[in-house]
Amino acid sequence: MDEDSITIGVIVGVLVLLSPIMLYWTVAFLDTAGIDRYLSGTFFIVVSAFVPVLIISVFSFLVMRHYNRPYPWIKKVLLSLGAFLFVALFMLLSMIGFV
């Protein structure tokens, strides 16, 4: 494992650890803006969980392209990261009781 891979792992790991905070602020923004009135219970959770996943995926993509990773590798990593993170955040919101 080279230094670039370790750097990518640390940056993406920090972003993943910050995802519950991003989720909290996403829910707060959607609630304050009144968007939650137009979204039913489960759809609100899906949108709320998808926004932090999208933010983390964009920043992770930029970091991976900065270190010149090939597109098939980025696609594979971001797909697995996004799926895991989406399910984790969706389950977190479901357990808290937003449904």
Task: Walk me through what this model shows.
The radius of gyration is 15 Å and the shape is elongated. It has helices spanning about 5-15, 20-35, 40-65, 70-95. The chain has about 100 residues and is mostly helical. The model has no long low-confidence stretch (mean pLDDT about 90). The termini are far apart. The protein is built from four helices and no strands. Helix content is about 85%, strand content about 0%.
Write the layout of secondary structure elements.
Elements: H1 3-17, H2 19-33, H3 41-66, H4 71-96
Q: How many whole angstroms does the radius of gyration measure?
A: 15 Å
Tell me the strand percentage band. Answer: under 5%
* Mean pLDDT rating: 90
| Strand count | 0
Main beta sheet, described?
none
| Residue windows where pLDDT falls under 50 for at least 5 positions | none
Percent helix, as a range, is over 70%
Number of helices: 4
Shape: elongated
How widely separated are the two ends? Answer: 43 Å
Element order, helices and strands? HHHH
Structural class: mainly alpha
Give a quick precis of the structure:
Helix content is 83%, strand content 0%. With 99 residues, the protein is mostly helical. 15% of the residues are buried.
Please describe the structure with a list of short key phrases separated by commas or semicolons:
mainly alpha; 0% strand; 83% helix; 99 residues; 4 helices
